[in-house]
TrEMBL record:
GO MF term list: methyltransferase activity; nucleoside triphosphate diphosphatase activity
InterPro entries named among the record's database cross-references: MazG-like_dom (IPR004518), NTP-PPase_MazG-like_N (IPR048015), NTP_PyrPHydrolase_MazG (IPR011551)
Keywords: Methyltransferase, Transferase
Protein name (record): Tetrapyrrole methylase family protein / MazG family protein
A Pfam family hit: MazG
């Protein structure tokens, strides 16, 4: 069994009727704060690596962020929306599609041309879904609030 399959089974076990009460009651909504906090801890791990050369904290924090992704994927699977494999396939397809110079043999003359192509590909991906961008400002504000809340919980309040 791969490590990612093992992680998925652990999350499923935690959410099972005889699993952990806290894990079992989590939802996409209740996990927002943990997701934001773990992302910030990844940034800290990157800073630690840069300053000290020690990758241990980054490895741990990336694992914690991956756990958040897996939790959301397992919950989505329970709800009948999608699976972790669907998430991985979606991002894999997106990366291949957005990098035709790597995966399709297209040659761009300059960084500017490559960037313009990237933007055009993204624009085509978003066609018909432009309304989704309307949610980003509120999400950024919510994320700021969640970061401030995490700072207080960690004892870093201003």
């Amino acid at each position: 069994m791969s490590e990612i399959d093992n992680l998925k089974e652990i999350v499923k076990r935690l959410r099972a009727k005889d699993g952990c009460l806290w894990d079992r009651v989590q939802t996409h909504e209740t996990l927002k704060a943990a997701c934001v906090e773990e992302a910030a801890e990844v940034v800290s791990g990157i800073n630690i690596l840069e300053k000290t050369g020690d990758p241990g904290n980054l490895k741990e924090e990336l694992g914690d962020l991956l756990l958040q992704v897996m939790f959301h994927a397992v919950i989505a699977e329970e709800e009948g929306y999608f699976t972790f494999d669907d998430v991985a396939a979606t991002v894999s397809e997106k990366m291949v599609r957005r990098h035709p110079h790597v995966f399709s043999g297209i040659n761009y003359e300059s960084d500017e041309e490559r960037h313009a192509a990237w933007e055009e590909i993204k624009k085509k991906e978003k066609e018909g879904k432009e309304w989704q961008g309307d949610y980003l400002k509120d999400a950024m504000n919510e994320t700021t609030f969640l970061i401030e809340k995490a700072k207080k919980r960690k004892g870093f309040s201003d």
